Amino acid sequence: MNGPNQPPTGGAQQVSIGPSHGSNLPVDQQGDLHRIRTLLDTCYDDGLFPETSFSHGEIEVVDGIGYLNLSDEVDAATVAWLKDRTVIVMFDCRASTFSVAQREQFIRIYEDAWFQDINFNPSHKRGRTHGEAPNVMSYVARTSRIAQWTIAKGQDFIPSRQGPVRVTFRPWMTQQELDQLRDAESAARYRIIALRIPLGAMFSLRNAVERLMGPIIHMHPPDRREDEPRLGNVKIDCDPVVERNFKEWIVLRRPTGQAMQVQFANQDTAFCQKCLWWFHDEFDPECPRFHELMPLGRRSRTRGGRRGQNPTSHHPDQHLALQPFTIYNNPEFVPLPFPSQGVGASSSGGQTHGQLTSLRNVEGHSHGAGSYTVQPTATDATMRDPRLFLRTPVKQRRINGDGEGVITQEEEEGELDFFAVSAAGASTHQASSQGPPQQPPFNLALLPTPVLQASSSRNAVGSIRHQLVPLCFMLSQQGTKFMARRTDKGFLAIPTVAVSSSPTMKEAVKYVAATFIVECFAFRLVPGVRIGRKTVTASNGGSWHFSIGVLDVKIALDTAALLATQDVVWLPSSWLASTATEELQETFLTDDVNAKIVAEFCTTLATDKQPHSAGFRNLLLAPWGNSGEGETARKPRPKQPADDSQRIQHETAPTSTDVQP
């Protein structure tokens, strides 16, 4: 199996490129190792990017993605330098509302204590800061003595108007070490929250939890944060065994017969930032404040720790998203056959492509040629209960003042979150019933158009055929899952759309994906995940060029039930964690290309963006239209009281005996 950030070793064309700018000479271990250290000082201390007379590693291009495989010498020297000079500064969760500028100001207050001390800072220059996460920053000290003293201090408390803020200092770690530490900390505890504890149940609560669920590691004091209810809630860190024995309700009975009920949530329970309560989120129509705007300044995040401003509001007509709607004919629903295979005969009112039936045979009442109104036909309890099947409800198109569906500009990445166009087979009756035609926000002439490769007269030998793979992901109680369909032969097929050329822009991917989805459900590109590119040699000559777009979808209950009747299934994302997964051998994109290439692409993504990771789950949980933390970083820095700054400088100033040179 390839590493998460390593280029694939098989099934893809690899191209080595010679040096064009810079040297390709290897590192001279006798003379260049000291020079690397000097160049690292220049880079991190002075902010310069010096030219080097040696190569940093081998380069190659795989499926249009360039890779620089760092040499052992360069990588070891860089890691050693950062470990010697860099400190990870972690703020307590109460400081999560601080902007990047405010956190940097706190670090500068510490730095002022030794800034003018020639023994600790001979250069009289300030260190550099780098934002790592909403509550984590890196500080590159000017000398190793400053870094050692800061790490030795361990933690400190900074006074603020909101109360003392705990700051923890840790040595710098690589991403792999951070992931291992995070996994170890997560595996070492399981957090539950006791909600609305009756006053008479406080004393016996710990004993009840230990005996009914499992051992308790730490019970936090009932201190309240700004973004949590004012009721008697208590966070409890438990042994991981509690996850298996978790109980939502515990009842304490008094000898008189009175019962005191305590409800529990856990670290995986949904939380709403509007009404500040558990068991649903701000996108759930059952929220009592669903039609209200998000309170100003309140961050929208999951209980897992994703933070950021959320300007998204809900339209009063959002309940329309749960009503039955029209699905158009979509001949691109399934993997298309090779040109030499042709198109199979229609069966049961649906057109078949290589023994796979498209959405033309959806059961429902016909409204004109090629349109069908969806009727809820759920046969499974999981389909009937949206809380069991979907973590977040469907997101609908915005409706303007005239009641017409219009394209709206979303804030995420400056792109449209959702728009749809009818497939080529949609009738004129559909267009007239849907109001004026929508105008895409860009020139469609520049986009690759979906094409059908069903004619046997087209010779594909020696040609390149382009396919877009709309890899649709959805959250469920069982974890992250992606869309596929079970064919009549029992195989699984991941949907693909044939295009005239590979889409290179995100707008193009959205446009092509919209022709596949055809307003069946809302979708967006998963933020921060690039478009995949894979080239595979076809069995009958020529080659397939696949572009993989990773989509986040929200599906209404009735649509999910209808798709289930059409053999649409949702596969666990863990299948994509390795190219050696046995199930992928029976999952296909085309008749002779299986889903192994999709797993190869997923393993080349960053660790926190691979579909089976917790980081990818957080990406799906991010609010649609989240503007992130960048806006807050541009706000002016609030002035810290002078007496607080002087007190911190006086208390934190290192002495010559703290760290030995």
From TrEMBL:
Residues 640-650 have a biased composition (Basic and acidic residues). Residues 11-27, 652-661 have a biased composition (Polar residues). It comes from the Eukaryota. Residues 1-28, 299-320, 625-661 are annotated as: Disordered. This is Uncharacterized protein. The lineage of its organism: Eukaryota, Viridiplantae, Streptophyta, Charophyceae, Charales.
